[in-house]
Write a structure and sequence with these properties.
The protein has four domains: 133 residues, Response regulator (Rossmann fold, 3-Layer(aba) Sandwich), CATH 3.40.50.2300; 149 residues, Rossmann fold, CATH 3.40.50.300; 76 residues, Helicase, Ruva Protein, domain 3, CATH 1.10.8.60; 78 residues, Arc Repressor Mutant, subunit A. Helices cover 49% and strands 14% of the residues. A five-stranded parallel β-sheet has the order 2-1-3-4-5, sandwiched between helices. A hairpin with a 6-residue loop joins β11 and β12.
């Protein structure tokens, strides 16, 4: 096995000689008696860990760590110190040093710390690689789908993208409204300018006012300095107002002025500041109903709906499910460093039959879960979640003989998993007319498991038939 590379820096030659002696068997150790020479080596080579002696001229630990910035973000530094004083321990912690070892160095102690550091270094590198892949996936995200509903929406985006019109994107939770907004931005003339998002439902009215419009120094307790608002920061670019239906009436009025006249006034200020911002908003609420209830300003509503885009729910474009499912599968397989998976035709039938109350987000979660739990390279019916196996045509107004209305069970605020599983098995038995082999296949479980559950839930055919007669 290849030895891990360790860089050791100290101005004490005998100390370095001793380090080489105790580490050379298990590690490839390179030593330097000058810190700057050691940094030159780091620029050309990769090391897992650096051992840094407390006794180096011109640099304390804080300054030494600052010099390391940008050379190797994954390198872990172990400090070699003479004494564990509060001052030195605080400096080690604040400077970002991974761990420390007391001198004179004990081989067993050092070896334990090194092994722990190297293990964490490997995890850190893998995490960074995964983050890079996730970033690429995030940047390369596109609107997936060839259904008539998607084609129509893409045409709308093409028409509106290059203008500066305010756009309102509406749709149920999980349909991908933010993805639509980002597509508008990517195709706009402002694509090289800032794109800033604010979630209007995640902040109090006072906080969102300060975030959107900024504040002057002394405007309120804690306002020690002047702060630009997000609208100012987005000047020249695009501001995405997510969940705009949750914004309070007072801030709606100020926002309307910013959209209409292109100027903002900071909290505590009396001067208007001109801005050039494109506003794009999204909501899962029916803003027309909110207007009627007095919860949303009518004038802002009409300003936002000059060009509305309705994102269709997944149940209205089921022909896109195979494309979406395979896209999610490819992404999760890449992230998990697994071999390529495929979705079985039987599992795909279930995916196509389900109505997805959580929309695309729910489909993505289902595929990720299947890929994680699957023990083979084919994602089958057995990997599907329970609620999906109970597909909509089975659930709707279904009465399970001997057990009662399924709808009543599912509408409980808290599901009784015991009852739900019992119902699912009873449905499957009825559907297959008590053919155990077909029932096990339908449920994606083994026949032995099915027999055990029939016994566990007292699903005796004679009892159910007797109840049916009743």
């Amino acid at each position: 096995m290849e030895k891990k590379a360790i860089l050791a820096i100290s101005e004490q030659s005998e100390f370095l000689k001793n380090l080489r002696k105790i580490l050379k068997v298990d590690y490839e150790i390179i030593t330097f008696d000058n810190y700057l020479d050691g940094l030159d080596m780091l620029r050309e080579n990769k090391f897992e860990v650096m051992l840094l002696d407390e006794n180096i001229q011109w640099f304390n630990f804080t300054e030494a760590m600052r010099k390391l910035q940008g050379l190797d973000d994954n390198l872990l530094v172990i400090a070699l110190i003479n004494e564990e004083t509060d001052e030195i321990l605080n400096e080690i912690k604040s400077s970002g040093i991974y761990d420390h070892v007391l001198k004179p160095v004990d081989k067993k102690v050092l070896d334990k710390v090194l092994k722990h550091a190297i293990n964490n270094s490997n995890i850190l590198r893998e995490k960074k690689e995964l983050e890079k892949k996730l970033m690429v996936n995030e940047e390369s995200k596109e609107l997936i789908g060839q259904s008539p509903a998607m084609k129509s929406m893409k045409q709308l985006i093409e028409k509106i993208a290059e203008s500066d019109l305010t756009v309102l994107v509406t749709g149920e939770t999980g349909v991908g409204k933010e993805l639509v907004v980002r597509e508008i931005y990517k195709k706009s003339l402002r694509k090289k300018k800032p794109f800033i998002t604010i979630n209007c439902s995640a902040m109090s009215p006072k906080l969102i006012e300060s975030e959107l419009f900024g504040h002057e120094k002394g405007a309120f307790t804690g306002a020690d300095t002047m702060k630009k608002g997000i609208i100012e920061e987005a000047d020249g670019g695009t501001l995405f107002l997510d969940e705009i239906g949750d914004m309070d009436i007072k801030n709606q009025a100020k926002l309307l002025r910013a959209i209409e006249y292109g100027d903002v006034r900071r909290v505590g200020g009396n001067k208007s500041i001109k801005v050039n911002v494109r506003f794009v908003a999204a909501t899962n609420k029916n803003l027309k109903e909110e207007v009627e209830r007095g919860e949303f300003r009518r004038d802002l509503y009409h300003r936002l709906t000059s060009f509305p885009i309705q994102v269709p729910p997944l149940r209205d474009r089921k022909e896109d499910i195979p494309l979406l499912a395979n896209s999610f599968l490819n992404n999760i397989v890449s992230e998990l460093h697994k071999d390529m998976y495929v979705i079985s035709s039987e599992a795909m039938k279930y995916l196509l039959r389900y109505d997805y109350p959580g929309n695309i987000r729910e489909l993505k979660n289902i595929i990720e879960r299947m890929a994680i739990i699957s023990t083979t390279k084919t994602l089958g019916v057995e990997d599907l979640p329970l609620e999906l196996k109970m597909s909509a045509d089975t659930i709707e107004n279904k009465v399970v003989t001997g057990l009662g209305p399924l709808k009543d069970i599912l509408e409980n605020e808290i599901y009784d998993l015991f009852e739900v599983e019992k119902v699912v098995i009873a449905i499957a038995l009825q559907k297959t007319r008590w053919n155990k082999q077909e029932t096990a296949k339908l449920l994606g479980i083994g026949r032995t498991t099915l027999y055990e559950k029939i016994k566990k839930y007292n699903l005796d055919r004679r009892i159910i038939l007797k109840n049916k007669e009743d």
